[in-house]
Amino acid sequence: MDQFFCLHLFLLFFNLFFFSSSSDPKSSFGKGGGHDSFILGNYGYSSSSSSSSSSSSSIKDEIIRVANAPENVKWLKRIRREIHEYPELGYEEFKTSALIRRELDQMGIGYRWPVAGTGVVATIGSGSPPFVALRADMDALPIQEMVEWEHKSKIDGKMHACGHDAHVTMLLGAAKLLQELSDTLQGTVVLIFQPAEELGSGALRMIEEGAIENVEAILGLHVVHRYGTGTVASRPGEFLAGCGSFKAEITGKGGHAALPQESIDPILAASASVVSLQHIVSRETDPLQSQVVSVSTFQAGKAFNVIPDSAVIGGTFRAFSKQNLDSLKQRIQQVITGQATVHRCSAKVEFSEEDHPLIPPTVNNERVYSIMHHISTEIVGDNNTHTAPCIMGSEDLAFYLDKIPGSFLLIGTRNERLGSVYPPHSPYFTIDEDALPIGAAIHAAFAHRYLISSSQWQQI
Ligand SMILES: [Zn+2]
Ligand SMILES: [Zn+2]
């Protein structure tokens, strides 16, 4: 599995740049005594005077009320814990998919399945345009859980260490809220439960199999340990980097290490390539346009007295525009083959796009972002809706955003008291489940509001 495709490995670096409130964010939007009495706050549309807005306001109040209802919070936790106990890797999410269908059946929500192997695409509302999509990823990681708790992973060597169990739960929570309000939806909400985000290809396959056909806009959420529970973060425009990987085999001629004149040394050619690759970003790119080229693997030789026939290097490259990604890809190819030639070797450079497709940058559409931002401020409050910095990590939600307008939102789950402080992909990763109703409410309120906004916009 290729963890580097996932957003969260990079949140370690992200830590350096984050700013988060030092006060307890939960207290700022109200909280009862127990875990089950979390109160989402401040939802309303007082800034608008239109009649649709006032009915929208009461509907949003209803979303908050239902999301916060103790029995709903209990149900959300039960769902998340059930998924957490049986983590499944990319394209193997059979139990998770069955659980999703079980819950959708109980809610009376129709769906299409299988999509991309284990994926599920459900719809709620009129069945007519406009269509707006909400997306959750289902896959876990090949990690042995080290958190000792009642609902620890029951599968050795597999763990929901990136919070995708929470994402599925939040989307099911939204499904429940939206189904109760389905008569008021001014269009159709498409719920996308996708496989294999960690492999970087799940979203692509869902798109190929028609998951966003006729869909106007999409929203994706991800839990994040750097922001406290009760807070959210995002930014308009460029948000997460696009990401690609490369592997190069440099071939020379092996021989005795004491007689280098009789060999053609691929290690020297590979070493020169590694050094020259560093010049692409440092000397050729605008310092104000963040890019990365990292060589992270180097394999060559087996004996101290033998020059090997070949050396293999590999790594990752990242940028915030497709143009810069393409240009990095082209220069990586040129630099490695050029350095190989200088050192009398040959080189074969691969960008392994079949196994690991080039992930586009995650760019939040301004209009969708503004609706999402407004909804967030209404759900968790202005002070708890942060502007996040750009992140060098990648997310396969970007494949959808490459096709249709959309937005990506980080949902805070940090809570020292519960040990929800570890980065994703850590065997100690855990989340504060109080974030579950917040994610469900934001999903549902966004979809509801987007459809109103789209209908009004189309009438103009
Ligand atoms: Zn991950
Ligand atoms: Zn993730």
Automatic annotation (TrEMBL):
<dbReference type="GO" id="GO:0010179">
    <property type="term" value="F:IAA-Ala conjugate hydrolase activity"/>
</dbReference>
<feature type="binding site">
    <location>
        <position position="425"/>
    </location>
    <ligand>
        <name>Mn(2+)</name>
    </ligand>
</feature>
<keyword id="KW-0479">Metal-binding</keyword>
<dbReference type="GO" id="GO:0005783">
    <property type="term" value="C:endoplasmic reticulum"/>
</dbReference>
<comment type="similarity">
    <text>Belongs to the peptidase M20 family.</text>
</comment>
<feature type="binding site">
    <location>
        <position position="162"/>
    </location>
    <ligand>
        <name>Mn(2+)</name>
    </ligand>
</feature>
<dbReference type="InterPro" id="IPR002933">
    <property type="entry name" value="Peptidase_M20"/>
</dbReference>
<dbReference type="Pfam" id="PF07687">
    <property type="entry name" value="M20_dimer"/>
</dbReference>
<feature type="binding site">
    <location>
        <position position="222"/>
    </location>
    <ligand>
        <name>Mn(2+)</name>
    </ligand>
</feature>
<feature type="binding site">
    <location>
        <position position="198"/>
    </location>
    <ligand>
        <name>Mn(2+)</name>
    </ligand>
</feature>
<keyword id="KW-0464">Manganese</keyword>
<protein>
    <recommendedName>
        <fullName>Peptidase M20 dimerisation domain-containing protein</fullName>
    </recommendedName>
</protein>
<dbReference type="InterPro" id="IPR011650">
    <property type="entry name" value="Peptidase_M20_dimer"/>
</dbReference>
<feature type="binding site">
    <location>
        <position position="164"/>
    </location>
    <ligand>
        <name>Mn(2+)</name>
    </ligand>
</feature>
<keyword id="KW-0732">Signal</keyword>
<dbReference type="InterPro" id="IPR017439">
    <property type="entry name" value="Amidohydrolase"/>
</dbReference>
<keyword id="KW-0378">Hydrolase</keyword>
<feature type="domain" description="Peptidase M20 dimerisation">
    <location>
        <begin position="242"/>
        <end position="337"/>
    </location>
</feature>
<feature type="signal peptide">
    <location>
        <begin position="1"/>
        <end position="23"/>
    </location>
</feature>
<dbReference type="GO" id="GO:0009850">
    <property type="term" value="P:auxin metabolic process"/>
</dbReference>
<dbReference type="GO" id="GO:0046872">
    <property type="term" value="F:metal ion binding"/>
</dbReference>
<dbReference type="InterPro" id="IPR044757">
    <property type="entry name" value="ILR1-like_Hyd"/>
</dbReference>
<dbReference type="Pfam" id="PF01546">
    <property type="entry name" value="Peptidase_M20"/>
</dbReference>
<dbReference type="InterPro" id="IPR036264">
    <property type="entry name" value="Bact_exopeptidase_dim_dom"/>
</dbReference>
